[in-house]
Write a sequence for this structure.
C-alpha cells in the first residue's frame, strides 16, 4: 500500500522540497498551504514526474479547516501515516517593542498549529501501528536569536513537544523527530529576513563550518530518511541540518 504524507507549508521553500522528495520516494503527498494556487503548481510538478499528490488549502491553526483538509486527503489518497509539520511564520521585533498580539500570533501558528495538525493526523497512525512525524523547528531555538524572542520561543517549544510526543507515541509504533534548519536560502522566510541579517552574506558563509548556506533540498534529504522504515529506531531526536552552525 502506498504511504500517504501531509506536508504543511508545502507551496514553496522547505515544504515544497520535502514534498517533492517524498513523492519521488513513492509516497503520496498532501500539499497544504494557504496559497492554494502554488500548491496546485507543486502537485502538477509531482504528477508530471509520475507521483501522486493533492492540493489542500487550510490554516494549520484552524481546527475546522484542518479537519476538512485531512478528511479530503484521506478520502482521495488513503490513511495518513506521515506528517511533516513545516508551516510556520517568522518575524523580527525588538523584545521591548513586542506586543501581546505578535506574541500570541507567533505561538498560535508555530506551536498551536503543530499541535492541531499532529493531533488530527494521529488516529490513522494509531490504527496502522506505524507513523512518522517530523517537526521543522529552527536553529534559532537552539542558539537564541536577538530580535526573535517570540519566534525562537515558539520553535523551542516545538523541540520540547517533539521529545514528549516521542515518549508517548513510541509504544504505538510512531516516531517523532525534529529538524532545526540552519541558514536555508530560497525560502519565503529567508527572503523576508535577508535585509535584516546582522552580517553580510560573505561573512555569514564564512561563519558556517561547511562554508555555504543551505538549500531546501538539504532539509528534504534528512526528512526523507526520518519518514522511512530505515529510521525506525530513531525518535525524540533533534537532527540538525545547519552546516555545523550548531554542534551538538
Amino acid at each position: 500500500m502506498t504511504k500517504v504524507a501531509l506536508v504543511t507549508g508545502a507551496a514553496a521553500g522547505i515544504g515544497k522540497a520535502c514534498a517533492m522528495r517524498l513523492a519521488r520516494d513513492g509516497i503520496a503527498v498532501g500539499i497544504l498551504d494557504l496559497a492554494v494556487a502554488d500548491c496546485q503548481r507543486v502537485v502538477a510538478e509531482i504528477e508530471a514526474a509520475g507521483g501522486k499528490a493533492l492540493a489542500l488549502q487550510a490554516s494549520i491553526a484552524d481546527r475546522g479547516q484542518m479537519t476538512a483538509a485531512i478528511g479530503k486527503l484521506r478520502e482521495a489518497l488513503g490513511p495518513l501515516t506521515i506528517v511533516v509539520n513545516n508551516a510556520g511564520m517568522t518575524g523580527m521585533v525588538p523584545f521591548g517593542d513586542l506586543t501581546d498580539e505578535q506574541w500570541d500570533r507567533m505561538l498560535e501558528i508555530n506551536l498551536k498549529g503543530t499541535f492541531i495538525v499532529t493531533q488530527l493526523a494521529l488516529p490513522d497512525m494509531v490504527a496502522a501501528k506505524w507513523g512518522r512525524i517530523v517537526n521543522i523547528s529552527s536553529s534559532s531555538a537552539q542558539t537564541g536569536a536577538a530580535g526573535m524572542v517570540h519566534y525562537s520561543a515558539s520553535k523551542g517549544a516545538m523541540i520540547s513537544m517533539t521529545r514528549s510526543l516521542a515518549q508517548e507515541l513510541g509504544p504505538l509504533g510512531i516516531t517523532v523527530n525534529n529538524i532545526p534548519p540552519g541558514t536555508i536560502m530560497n525560502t519565503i522566510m529567508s527572503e523576508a529576513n535577508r535585509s535584516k541579517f546582522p552580517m553580510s552574506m560573505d561573512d555569514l558563509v564564512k561563519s558556517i563550518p561547511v562554508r555555504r548556506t543551505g538549500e531546501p533540498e538539504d532539509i528534504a534529504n534528512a526528512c526523507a530518511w526520518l519518514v522511512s522504515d530505515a529510521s525506525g529506531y530513531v525518535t525524540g531526536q533533534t537532527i540538525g541540518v545547519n552546516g555545523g552552525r550548531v554542534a551538538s
Notes: The mean pLDDT is 92. Residues 117 and 154 are 16 Å apart (CA to CA). The two ends are 37 Å apart (CA to CA).
